[in-house]
Amino acid sequence: MGSIHEEMAQKTRQEIQKCFIELLLDEGFQNITVKQIAERAGINRGTFYLHFVDKFDCMEQIQNQLLNELQEKMKNINPTEIFRSVQQQKIYASFLPIYEFILENANALRAILGNQGDPSFSEKVKEILKDTLIVRLSEYSPMLAQEEFKRYFSAFFTSAILGLFQEWLEDYKGKTIDDFAKIHFQILSFIGNLSLIVASKQPFDSK
User: Fold this and answer.
1) CB within 10 Å: which end of the chain, N or C, has fewer?
2) CB 122 within 8 A of CB 162
């Protein structure tokens, strides 16, 4: 009996979060009220307050779920394996769960990262990128032991990855994990070969 009650409570909680995200996309965070969330979810405000303190708590809990999941998806990323995959002209398998995460949570990510969401969320995403990728890259280059260089490189690197995520989110409908993997592989290959391309060729004439 208890498990059935817990399952119903979980479904209600998920419905509240889904409706909150829809309103975030439609109205913007500042304009959302608990009454609107409850009405869209088909519940009364009392039921909403059984799950969340207020709309700020709802936003925070959704963000924490997304950030924890992203961090979990990134724990297997290994710089050596990334470069080896690029050299071998293969998709790096450990990126696939990240593409899946973006597709499965596209609405929530678009809403929170958008202009009417929470500006601080992008900084939280960057912190996860820095704490995983930059820390691991530091093992391979003494330059990242220099604090000033590390600070600027972290800003450049994490902003570039976040920008890629956001671009995908603007164009995710109809896309698959394979589509994300293909363009990401092309970007990594291009960056890896950029110095050789510039050194060996004349500027491309687009006319």
Assistant:
1) C
2) yes
Kindly indicate the confidence band of residue 24, based on its pLDDT and cuts at 50, 70 and 90.
Answer: very high
Residue count of the chain, please give it.
207
pLDDT the model gives residue 57: 98
pTM of the model: 0.87
Residue 65 in tokens: 């779920």
| Spatial distance between the Cα atoms of 35 and 198, rounded to a whole number of angstroms | 58
Residue 86 identity: V
d(CA 102, CA 192): 24
- DSSP string over 2-26: HHHHHHHHHHHHHHHHHHHHHHHHH
Any alpha helices (H) in the chain, and if so which ranges? 2-27, 34-41, 45-51, 55-74, 79-87, 96-104, 106-113, 119-129, 135-137, 147-170, 177-200
